[in-house]
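Lab notebook, bench 4. The sequencing result for the construct came back, and we need a structural model before the next group meeting so we can plan mutations. Quick request posted to the team channel:

Model the 3D structure of this chain.
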Amino acid sequence: MKKLFLLLLPFAFCACGGNDAGCRISGVLDSGLAGHQVVLTDMNDHVVDSALIAADGAFVFNLGECEPAMRVAKFGGYECRVLVEKGIKATLDLPAGKVEDGGVNSAYYNYLADRAGLAAKYDLLCNDCYDESLSPERRDAARDEMRSTSARMRELCLERAVENKDNIAGPAILLNYGLSFYAKSVAYYDSVVGLFPYAQYFKNYGREREMVVQKYISAEGSMFIDFDARDWDGNAVKLSDYVGKGKYVLVDFWASWCGPCRGEIPNLNAIHDRFDGENFMVIGIDVEDNIGAAKDAAVEEGVKYTLLDANGVPVLRKYGVSSIPHIILFAPDGTILKRGLRGEAIGKYVEEKLK
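Done. Here's the predicted structure in token form:
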């Protein structure tokens, strides 16, 4: 494919009457691409509009007085999200994955850029936390700084969301917060989302709310929720083949691409070595991963405990899990005793229950 060159067209953000009330998204690609189409899809990948690339490389989406929504502009291997609503005049930079309009899209992409800087810092600190070539003091310092960076990412999200709570950028930004993870209850979730009138246009909030509901259905003290999986040899199994069978079961939801997940493996191996037997076992359940990569990671990390493959199964949604690793201890009868165990607290809690 010929290299794409985007020539941005300057359109000021406004919400005027008459013909200017429609939503217009435009850009210019290389003139050699004339005759091709740029498409606009909804978040479920259904095409809602298309724009023909003209002889001079220009393309324009004239969406009229459209309802507020998040769309995705796509051409070749490029795509970027676009916030649309009545009156928006936006320029689209597909190769850079950015939209400018001096309004809601600019607010959204400025937030994403600031968050990306913090996320890059967080990833580096996360690597330092589990780098055994570093001193324990340096790893502890990295862990503390990682926590403060994570807190700043949440603060940034809430700050920018509140700044835009009365337009479509507000709820679009809030989706990055992981509200389903921090929500204390369904009522709390509803009260926060209720502050953003434009949240009604995002189906994601319905799915997030379902996560909150599931988290409290599977809260500590509740009975386990069963699901299908495969053992490491590809045979069909269920969680109920292990949980609720008269022994304590420590379950770790993990993935090969997750640094903190792999960082917990030595800890889980040690717990397995110490407590595995008639009354206790550890199970690692691979989720949202490539099974080949997971098997390679298990060998590299020297996993000693039972592993299951739950890829393609909505396990995390069933348990309202929005981040991994997520470690749960089940009682012999299948009751959820503790969720969200990490680090040294896992072994201490298991030891206390097995006394």
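The longest helix spans residues 136-163.
Will bring this to the meeting.
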